[in-house]
Design a protein that fits this description.
- With 180 residues, this protein is an alpha+beta fold.
- It has a 4-stranded mixed sheet. A two-stranded antiparallel ribbon has the order 2-3.
- It is built from 4 helices and 8 strands.
- It folds into 2 domains: 136 residues, Rossmann fold (3-Layer(aba) Sandwich); 31 residues, no CATH class.
- The N and C termini lie far apart (49 Å).
- Helix 2 runs parallel beside helix 3.
- Bound molecules: S-adenosylmethionine.
- The site of S-adenosylmethionine (SAM) has 7 residues, from loops.
- S-adenosylmethionine binds next to loops.
């Protein structure tokens, strides 16, 4: 299979041309069911980039449209592969149910909350300040790839545990549960 290529067009058509289980990792940032039309003036040449996020009928139209594409994503994903679906409050709860059906709820790994800052609004509610990224693996295969990320220990952790290995809330030295 050719790699290092950007395919332009409807991902449904493009994915249908791919063989089964050939993709390691999928990240989707689709329209969010926001009922808006987006236009951006791009770069120095004032190129107009636009896409529509308006759906006739109901949420069922949107979830049906997404479902067709997610089915293809599942087909092309390798057994060790994972998929990340970026969405927000408009439809994340509907997409979670769709993903549970297509990828199986046992393959739901986690939900990443991407929090960002906005100016406070004069609304009678909390500001909507986060997106959701649903993370599923194709299977529960122990060989599935997940590249762990590490960061330096916080000062307080270093003070408490030094550089000793800590595993899932257990102190390796004593084997005892670390009280939270
Ligand atoms: C929420 S935006 C994502 C924007 C993008 N992540 C960026 O930073 O520019 C949704 C994107 O999905 C694209 N899109 C809409 N329908 C599509 C389809 N059938 N196949 C592939 N992409 C599609 C739109 O053109 C738009 O760029």
């Amino acid at each position: 299979m050719n790699t290092n290529i950007i395919y332009c067009g409807d991902c449904l058509t493009i994915l249908k041309g791919f063989p089964d289980e050939c993709i390691d990792l999928i990240y989707l940032d689709p329209p969010f069911f926001s009922n808006r039309h987006y236009e951006v003036i791009w770069g120095n040449h004032a190129e107009l980039r636009a896409f529509g996020d308006r759906w006739q009928g109901s949420i069922n139209h949107y979830t049906g449209w997404m479902g067709e594409r997610l089915e293809q994503c599942k087909r092309v994903l390798k057994k060790e592969g994972s998929i990340y679906l970026h969405c927000d409050y408009h439809a994340s709860h509907y997409l979670k149910i769709k993903m549970d059906k297509i990828f199986d709820e046992s393959n739901f790994r986690n939900e990443i909350v991407w929090h960002y800052k906005k100016w406070s609004a004069g609304w009678q509610q909390f500001q909507r300040n986060h997106d959701i990224i649903l993370f599923y693996s194709k299977t529960d295969n122990k060989k599935r790839v997940f590249n762990k990320m590490f960061m330096d220990r916080a000062e307080s952790t270093l003070k408490r545990f030094g550089t000793a290995k800590i595993i899932s809330g257990y102190d390796e030295k004593t084997g005892k549960r670390i009280p939270s």
